[in-house]
Design brief:
This protein has 422 residues and is α+β, with helices and mostly antiparallel strands. The protein is built from 9 helices and 12 strands.
Length: 422
């Protein structure tokens, strides 16, 4: 990528992170209700630490670290870098102040921009690839900021809104299409990244897989459809649940998706615009893998594998540019457009749980050094999601992008698309 283009992309992403924090009150920046949710202040510091640690310290001549303890405060999971604050204690950090973290961001941003514009041609290929990784890393944290802020506000009894509810459009109030399926014929297909631009190492290498005949639902499952599962007693019927899932339902006392509330006999959902009546036409979101799998069992269907999902999207020529992403500003899933029986909403709105465990592709090669800790070491005990969500930056997503979480997690905009045999 040319220097000027990378410089502008870097600055744009840094500004976007701060724009997402602009609606917050100062008290919101330090709250951590659960271990999965990081305080917004920590996200601001961590994404800055990444550029300072992997770009400025090794490549910027005479650069002095901003503060000797910031690496301890803002390192996430990089053992090669050294000790760090425990993940569940990020909300204990009243200092540095929010103002000091923004100062840290400003200085590091300026130094990285200066490095981009003046680094020698000899070092440019190596450094530019790390900066590009840092940009995508920060975009991941932009999505986490949105979902973490939502959880933080939800745990407040006042149920404060992050933003005003956008005026409804025809798409937002559309009735969903009937339950339809698209055939994916059996065959040998190539999957994984095979392009010239950026990808994460877990999308490599490009390789072949065999798929049997299958069918994928043309759109994600809606709130209204999932409500039928809830009201039929789905959360009380062990027959549809994996053993670990059923144990989780009992332990956590789940009765519905996260953010659903029943008030005076009517269902509501908490959104980043506050509490609103449940939008039955919109894709169900904030469900765990366990809930997605149980719903599929209740319907007599199953979840697609990540390769079935990728091949189906490829055959349908699904276009990420048409999805509902972070840039729309809605920050909530919206109903599918009217369909002619083709696949809809493969990108944006909700991440879609797949039946695939997060494992390395054949001949996967982990990057050397601390950067190698980015993806590879998490390939155990997690499930793959595909497609991006309404909180994902559009320029961050790809057909081959593999997101992954433990099967009980549901604070992300995660939903479900059903699969069926022919």
């Amino acid at each position: 990528m040319p220097r000027t283009e990378l410089a502008e992309r870097f600055l744009s992403v840094r500004r976007e992170t701060e724009r997402l924090c602009a609606p917050l009150e100062i008290e919101d920046y330090v709250v951590q209700p659960i271990v999965d949710v990081s305080p917004p202040k920590w996200h601001l510091g961590h994404t800055t630490w990444f550029f300072e640690t992997f770009v400025l310290q090794p490549y910027a001549t005479a650069y002095q670290s901003f503060h000797p303890l910031y690496s301890f405060l803002f390192n996430s999971y990089y053992n090669a870098i050294g000790a760090r604050t425990a993940r569940n204690e990020r909300g204990h950090l009243s200092r540095p102040t929010v103002k000091e973290v923004y100062t840290y961001r400003t200085i590091v941003t300026e130094k990285v921009h200066e490095l981009i514009m003046h680094l020698s041609d000899e070092k440019w290929p190596e450094v530019s690839s790390i900066i590009e990784l840092g940009i995508h890393h920060e975009q991941q944290h932009q999505e986490l900021l949105v979902t973490d802020i939502k959880y933080i506000l939800f745990t407040n009894p006042l149920r404060p809104a992050y933003q005003a509810l956008a005026p409804a459009t025809a798409r937002q109030t559309a009735a969903p299409s009937s339950e339809q399926y698209v055939e994916v014929p059996a065959g040998i297909y190539c999957v994984g990244y095979n392009g010239m631009g950026f990808c994460f190492d877990n999308e490599l290498p490009h390789h072949k897989v065999y798929l049997g005949d299958t069918r994928l639902m043309t759109r994600p499952v809606t709130n209204g459809e999932f409500l039928e599962f809830v009201e039929s007693g789905g959360y009380r019927d062990f027959r549809h649940w994996l053993s670990d899932g059923w144990d989780t339902v009992q332990r956590e006392r789940w009765q519905a998706p996260l953010y659903w509330e029943k008030i005076d006999g009517e269902w509501f959902e908490f959104t980043l615009s506050g509490l609103v009546p449940l939008r039955k036409e919109a894709p169900v979101s904030h469900i765990s893998y366990y809930e997605a799998d149980a719903f599929a069992s209740w319907k007599g269907k199953r979840l697609p594998t990540e390769f079935e999902w990728e091949v189906a999207a490829t055959l349908a020529q699904a276009n990420p540019e048409q999805g509902n992403f972070l840039e729309s500003g809605l920050l909530m899933p919206i109903p599918a457009a009217e369909t002619d029986g083709t696949l809809q909403q493969m990108f944006g709105d909700v991440w879609e749980w797949t039946a695939s465990a997060y494992l390395p592709y054949p001949n996967y090669q982990k990057a050397a050094g601390a950067i190698g800790e980015y993806n590879g070491k998490f390939m155990s005990g997690q499930m793959v999601l595909r497609g991006g969500s309404c909180a994902t930056p559009q320029s961050h997503i790809r057909l081959t992008y593999r997101n992954f979480f433990q099967p009980d997690k549901r604070w992300q905009f995660s939903g479900v698309r059903l699969a069926d045999k022919l």
